[in-house]
Amino acid sequence: MKKIPRIYINKKINIQQKISLEDDKKNYLVNVMRMSIGNKVYIFNNTNFLFLSEIIQLNKKKITLNILTKEKKNNESPLKIHLGQSISKKKSMSWIIQKSSELGVESITPIICEKSSLKNKQIINIKKWKKISISASQQCERNVLTKIFKPIKLNKWIFSLKDYPKIIFTPNKKTSKKKKLPNKTKKLYILIGSEMGFSKKEIKFCVQKKFFNINLGKRILRTETAALTAISIMQYKYGDLNV
Q: At a CB cut-off of 8 Å and minimum separation 6, what does 19 contact?
């Protein structure tokens, strides 16, 4: 049986509504998925609902879908993770955003730190990062998108945080405070450094602002590996990543 593809549409959707798709979505369904008239397509729109539709018109100019059913489908983690990711190299940032979305991260803020990778202005591309998040959600069957916020300096980001557990992951084993993490929480903040890590001043500032300083073992991890490892550990401890 052919798998029903999923696409994201940024609009309110109602049953029996007719929707004409944009060129990129049309290309995906026709040229990549080889869909034709009568085939079914799932649509999600950043809500906890999933819409089943049917292709009713297909030609060179447009593809039209008819919405058939609406089903509540909550695939979100009970743990709301906000990832503060120090801006890293282009490929690393794309990878982190893609995999963080797949792992159920609620939101991501690119952080400007002392050692952030800011030499190339093309590194900061919010529009592209949002597209990566959408693509990841299509693949992993999330119906709510990971929010991608605008880059912000570390100190301003810290002052904007609410009163939930805050964790900075560093390779400094001496300052680890794993035992003091709460037994339960519905939300937390994770802070990950770039390829060059954090400065001593930044780590000290975070600890002063009540961040838990935790290490991820004896080995030094790449920034993308550290981010995904930290997210996975927190989803296992507080979220829905069960074994």
A: 9, 11, 13, 43, 53, 64, 65, 66, 67
